[in-house]
Amino acid sequence: MSLRERITSDLTDAMRARDAVRLSTLRLIQAAIKDRDIAARAEDRCKGCGEDEILALLQKLVKQREDSAAVYETAGRLDLAEREQREAEIVRSYLPEPMDDKAIAEAAREVVEELDAAGLKDMGRCMGALKERYTGRMDFARAGKEVRTLLQDPA
After folding, report:
1. 47, 82, 105, 107: least buried by Cβ within 10 Å?
2. Residue ranges covered by each domain of the chain
3. Which residues contact 52 (CB under 8 A, 6 or more apart)?
4. Domain 101-152 in this protein, CATH class
5. Tens digit of pLDDT for each residue in 53-102?
6. Which pLDDT belongs to residue 45?
7. How far is C-alpha 36 from the chain's CA centre?
8. What is the pLDDT of residues 9-52, one digit of tens each?
């Protein structure tokens, strides 16, 4: 079952269960995917966005929810912060298991060696290769720090 089909199925289940938070979150996900599909059609990709793009979109939605929760906590709106955190958990449930720091470091080292990257000028190529291979599984902020460290100090 594809990710798109799983989201649609879970949306129906949330409607039956009358789970308001899950239902609104899944509708938000579907709307975001539909927007991405429309943008893909404008780029002459008839089938819409692919699985990798959906994973990247889900990562972005999780990050937005976490940022919003932090802002709400700072403002003392714990009820809204809690809802944002719950939405982030729902979205995160559709992402593959995230890579730990050790796996990120190993993947970064592999890409740097494979591309024969020599300096910071190769940072973009390395990050592009990592994004192509590990979309939805890797924290690219951590990966960027790791690649930068490897390129500055190739020891």
Report:
1. 47
2. 3-92, 101-152
3. 135, 136
4. mainly alpha
5. 888 899 899 999 999 999 999 999 999 999 999 999 999 999 888 888 89
6. 64
7. 14
8. 999 999 999 999 999 999 999 999 999 888 888 777 666 778 88
- Greatest Cα-to-Cα distance within the chain, rounded to the nearest angstrom: 57
Does the model's pTM come out above 0.70? yes
d(CA 33, CA 39): 10
Long-range contacts of residues 71-80, Cβ cutoff 8 Å, at least 24 apart: none
Structural tokens at position 140: 């690219």
Tokens of 40: 């893909």
* CB-based contact 33:4 (threshold 8 Å): yes
Structure tokens at 69: 């929760």
Give the type of residue at 135. T
**Domain 3-92: what homologous superfamily?**
Uncharacterised protein YqeY/AIM41, N-terminal domain (1.10.1510.10)
Question: Please, are residues 99 and 138 in contact by the beta-carbon 8 Å criterion?
Answer: yes
Residue 115 carries which DSSP code?
T
d(C-alpha 129, C-alpha 138), whole Å: 12
Asked whether 53 and 36 are in contact (CB, 8 A), the reply is yes
Give the model's pLDDT for residue 99. Answer: 87
pLDDT for the residue numbered 140: 85
